[in-house]
TrEMBL record:
Subcellular location: Membrane
Bilayer topology term: Single-pass membrane protein
Sequence similarity: Belongs to the cytochrome P450 family.
Alphabetical keyword list: Heme, Iron, Membrane, Metal-binding, Monooxygenase, Oxidoreductase, Signal, Transmembrane, Transmembrane helix
Domain of life of the organism encoding this protein: Eukaryota
Gene3D superfamilies linked: Cytochrome P450
Name of this protein: Beta-amyrin 28-monooxygenase
GO molecular function, one term: iron ion binding
Organism of derivation: Vitis rotundifolia
GO cellular component, as recorded: membrane
Signal sequence residues: 1-21
Any one Pfam family match given in the protein's UniProt record, by short name: p450
Example of a GO biological process term: sterol metabolic process
Length: 473
């Protein structure tokens, strides 16, 4: 009996695979769905960690052509790339392609955030979030962000001879999120948020096996705990609003005040799910960008000198100790072009998914209803016909952004689905770089330029550097 059961378990995956292959619709792209549940997930994750993910995709293109089927994180998908593919992904009106993520990610981040909503629901919730994240609103938070950066540098950089950049940038960006978006002050609550958040984010790009002790299972448990913490925050801020608190003091309060005007504008679950999404989107992405900027400035003396000159001129025109202003940020044009070129070469988000709501045709192939579309950022970022000499770091590419073809530079997405937090990320990056270059000099402890993706890019050892204070401010 035990031998029969062993043979049954061995043959079951093969049987399921044959059934899936037999039931595939006609006209789907070439490729393989691989083993049930696993598919090509492990291969992709290994390639990302080894920094060979672009090569992994290029090999698929050589083998199957410009469009191919595969299975990732338990669901069938079609890999597409190029300007037309990006336009299909980002310009869809929501009737044929949805922004819905893999079911495994929905279980972690919820099903009522901007990644999952479409049509009128997406416009309604996006409008509520943009009311806080639009430039006109964010102007008043430049000083608060400046204060967070100064506090961070005093605690973790000042007086040190060596620091590790990436974990410190993650600490900084999470503190900024907690302070400006959630209104959570430094202390035990912030520390709990950090611990739970790290557990949650580790499971977003993992094989979705929900068994005890798996990364995915730990992520689900951490997500539940964070959701409960957010609900507690919402109750407290509801009370503060009733007592006359400003609705603009943080994102949660802003969303609660909108809900208070009309309960149909945004629901409690939508607030919770979108707070989770903002935590993920605003944490690793900005930390990655600033970390790679620090590495770049250490490797490129000419770019460093130009950035330093721009910020020294701003610093000299300000009284000692005075916070940066919106007008100061407007003078940091070269620094932001450097940041955009960094995003082109090292996009924090390597790839993403969309869900096909009804059968569509692309490049002569059928993409069936219910399948995922898998797209990768670097496929246009590193395309020589779009960005000449793509491996060369050249901030002048962004002197005239209108010259860049639409849907080719997509670190923030594009079209109606473009990230609403672009301006927040710009302020965060510029304020941080300003204080770093005017207060410190640094050199890299590792000279290699390797990085792995797990899932976001991380340099060797988290980028340890030796620092000396400049004492210019």
């Amino acid at each position: 009996m035990s031998a029969f059961f062993t043979i049954f378990l061995f043959l079951l995956p093969i049987f399921l695979l044959l059934v899936r292959r037999r039931s595939l619709p006609k006209g789907v792209p070439p490729g393989s769905l691989g083993l049930p549940l696993i598919g090509q997930s492990i291969g992709l994750l290994r390639a990302m960690r080894a920094n060979t993910a672009e090569k992994w995709l290029e090999e698929r293109i050589k083998k199957y052509g410009p469009i191919s089927k595969l299975s990732l994180f338990g669901q069938p998908a079609v890999f597409i790339y190029g300007q037309a593919a990006n336009k299909l992904v980002f310009a869809s009106d929501g009737s044929t392609i949805s922004n819905q993520q893999a079911k495994s990610n929905q279980m972690i981040l919820g099903d009522r955030n901007l990644l999952e909503l479409s049509g009128e629901d997406h416009k309604r919730v996006r409008g509520a979030i943009v009311s806080f994240l639009k430039p006109e609103s964010l102007k008043q938070y430049v000083g608060k962000m400046d204060a967070e950066v100064r506090k961070h540098l005093e605690m973790h950089w000042q007086g040190k001879q060596r620091v590790t950049v990436m974990p410190l940038m993650k600490t900084l960006t999470f503190n900024i999120i907690c302070g400006l978006l959630f209104g959570v002050e430094r202390g035990i609550r912030r520390e709990k948020f950090v611990a739970r958040f790290q557990e949650m984010i580790e499971g977003i790009w993992s094989v979705p096996v929900n068994l005890p002790f798996t990364r995915y299972n730990r992520s689900l448990q951490a997500s539940t705990k964070i959701q409960n913490m957010i609900k507690e925050l919402m109750k407290e801020k509801d009370v503060e609003l009733e007592k006359g608190a400003s609705p603009h003091q943080d994102l949660i309060t802003c969303l609660l005040s909108i809900r208070g005007k009309n309960n149909e504008v945004i629901t409690e679950k939508e607030i919770v799910d979108n707070v989770l999404l903002v935590m993920v989107a605003g944490h690793d992405t900005s930390a990655v960008l600033i970390t790679f900027l620090v590495r770049l400035l250490a490797n490129d003396p000419d770019v460093y000198a130009a950035v330093l000159k721009e910020h020294e001129e701003i610093a000299k025109g300000k009284p000692s100790g005075e916070f940066l202003t919106w007008e100061d940020l407007a003078k940091m044009k070269y620094t932001w072009r450097v940041a955009l070129e960094t995003l082109r070469m090292f996009p924090p988000v390597f790839a993403g998914f969309r869900t096909v709501l009804k059968d569509i045709e692309f490049e002569g192939y059928l993409i069936p209803e219910g399948w995922k579309i898998f797209w990768a950022t670097s496929m246009t970022h590193m395309n020589n016909s779009i960005f000449p000499e793509p491996t060369k770091f050249d901030p002048t590419r962004f002197e005239n952004q209108a010259s860049i073809p639409p849907y080719c530079f997509i670190p923030f997405g594009g079209g109606p689905r473009i990230c609403p937090g672009i301006e927040f990320a710009r302020i965060e990056t510029l304020v941080t770089i300003h204080h770093l270059v005017t207060r410190f000099k640094w050199k890299l402890c590792h000279t290699d330029n390797f990085f792995s993706r797990n899932p976001t890019p991380a340099p060797t050892g988290g980028l340890p550097i030796e620092i000396t204070s400049m004492n210019l401010m």
